[in-house]
Task: inverse folding
């Protein structure tokens, strides 16, 4: 499953032909970086690769906003792209995975750290997660009046994941003295 491919094909299927900058703006508007691994800047490369395999096609080149603005290539989804969209969507709905967190590996190799150094590192992660949670909650409050369909539950999914991570870090901090005594 390719998240960027799924996003671009979905946007083109839903909104019709668009140029890369419009697709990038849609990604920013949808805040895709909050709930996927998609980076808006990578979407141009995705478009070019999908053109090579005939999932999208160039329908025109246009220049907007006056003579100084760059030419923009407008893409449309092809029939092959619509078939790929269904494959990507169905794969994403079936694919259940919780990505490994590198902290789990790092925690296996901390005997050279004092308890306080380890506590500080874990607490810094917890603080970063709390900041992410606060930001996501603010995004949710701002977006709430405009959310439709399944969008409210997408926010809830991300909020729940952040809360679970925070709870795990807090439990680790609480148990740390006992866990380190066992080593």
Result:
């Amino acid at each position: 499953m390719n998240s960027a491919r799924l996003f671009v094909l979905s946007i083109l299927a839903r909104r019709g032909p668009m140029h890369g900058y419009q697709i990038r703006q849609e990604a920013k508007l949808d805040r895709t970086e909050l709930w996927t691994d998609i980076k808006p800047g990578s979407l141009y490369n995705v478009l070019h690769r999908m053109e090579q395999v005939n999932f999208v096609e160039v329908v025109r080149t246009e220049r907007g906003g006056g003579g100084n603005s760059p030419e923009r290539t407008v893409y449309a989804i092809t029939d092959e792209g619509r078939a790929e969209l269904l494959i990507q969507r169905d794969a994403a709905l079936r694919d259940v995975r919780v990505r490994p967190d590198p902290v789990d590996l790092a925690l296996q190799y901390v005997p050279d750290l004092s308890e306080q150094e380890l506590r500080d590192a874990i607490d810094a992660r917890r603080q970063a997660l709390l900041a992410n949670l606060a930001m996501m909650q603010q995004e949710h409050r701002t977006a709430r009046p405009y959310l439709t369909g399944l969008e409210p539950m997408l926010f809830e999914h991300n909020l729940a994941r952040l809360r679970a991570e925070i709870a795990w870090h807090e439990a680790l901090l609480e148990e740390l003295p006992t866990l380190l005594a066992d080593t």
